[in-house]
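Q: What would this chain look like folded?
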Amino acid sequence: MISVKDLNPDYITDAKGHKRAVILPLKEYEELLEDLNDLAVAAERRDESGIAHNKVMEELKRDGYVSD
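A: My prediction, written as structure tokens:
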């Protein structure tokens, strides 16, 4: 997740010097979009019940993703 401190914005200002828009490097912009998407997915799924860790591990082992 990108931190606000890590952003390198440039600003577009009006004639009076008021900030009107932000320009971000493309990589930072894409990281922000990914973070927003992750947050939206988490919000949509917050009421779903969880799966016990041991059940997840059993499935991963059964499917060959984790070895004993």
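Residues 12 and 21 are 5 Å apart (CA to CA).
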